[in-house]
Amino acid sequence: MDKFRMMFQFLQSNQESFMNGICGIMALASAQMYSAFEFSCPCMPEYNYTYGIGLLLIPPIWFFLLGFVLNNNVSVLAEEWKRPTGKRTKDPTILRYMFCSITQRSLIAPAVWVSVTLMDGKSFLCAFSINLDIDRFGNSSVIQGMSETEKLKFLARIPCKDLFEDKELREAASRYIKCISQACGWMVLLMMTFTAFLIRAIRPCFTQAAFLKTKYWSHYIDIERKMFDETCKEHAKSFAKVCIQQYFENISGEMRSFHRHHSKHDSDNEDEDAWKSDEEKLLGIRAQDDMNKVLWNWHTCKPPLALRKEHEDGEKEGEMNGNINGEVNGFVKSHTHDVEKKEWAVYYSKV
């Protein structure tokens, strides 16, 4: 159990690297799924286009949504977007940064699927075989005398080896359509790479300060949520422990006193230290209604992001005032700390 807890804490502390690894695994999984997928075109004019385009678009949409599901920052983004304003304003730039970061990671696997599909060319061949111009290959005599319906059925059978008799025509048509599909695949890869380059190269030139600000506060929101969850877990654990101990003290006080009488002094000190630590973790909240109020206030009115140092500032001001008063009365810091100060009032009269 401790090993799993350590692994979970490691994943939480390295969440960004972990999410990048998840995106890479999803990209490899998409390519592996396509290679293991048995492509079977229906070879019917009514369904070829739907099957080919559906195979090209529907799995990327599924991978895109799966990337959102596996990303923990989605819940952080939703909570930050829907929470009441309270004492802490919501910054739209932080929400946009978090959404763009999640979207960029979620687009990796769909991009791999689309590029692999276009490079293979089977779905493209299935979808656009009925739009092929046979005259390009010099075999127009094959479709002479056919009606429009028969011609469409003939072209729809090009992706299927078992249903198409003219092997030379099928090979020429397949190579032609796959060539176009691969060109589209390389264009998609080039556009995505160029877009990513522009985003990374141009963004720091114009909005570096704003980018650093939004990145910092997005990390803060994520870390604050984790710390709040950990604090709640610690408080719940201490609350349950103290509650159970008080229950057993009330029910079986005599048995507890008997065991304490026969236990060693060291164990008593350890129990006392553990009890004090549990009491400290309660942070003064010892009732269910108080805890519910704390949780409700955290949701509806989070504290402002301005830390106070009233106690330290008060001490510094007191020291400065004491030093100034000492210098005015002719004292130095290291002398006459216990001497009481006397005030003299002198009045002058002309009478």
From TrEMBL:
Its main location: membrane. The chain crosses the membrane at residues 21-37, 49-70, 183-202. GO terms for cellular component: plasma membrane. Keywords: Ion channel, Ion transport, Membrane, Transmembrane, Transmembrane helix, Transport. The keyword Plastid does not apply. It is found in: Membrane. The keyword Transmembrane applies. It is a multi-pass membrane protein. GO terms for biological process: ATP export. GO terms for molecular function: monoatomic cation channel activity. Pfam families: Ca_hom_mod. PANTHER family: CALCIUM HOMEOSTASIS MODULATOR PROTEIN (PTHR32261), CALCIUM HOMEOSTASIS MODULATOR PROTEIN 1 (PTHR32261:SF2). Belongs to the CALHM family. This is Calcium homeostasis modulator 1. It comes from Oreochromis aureus. The gene is CALHM1.
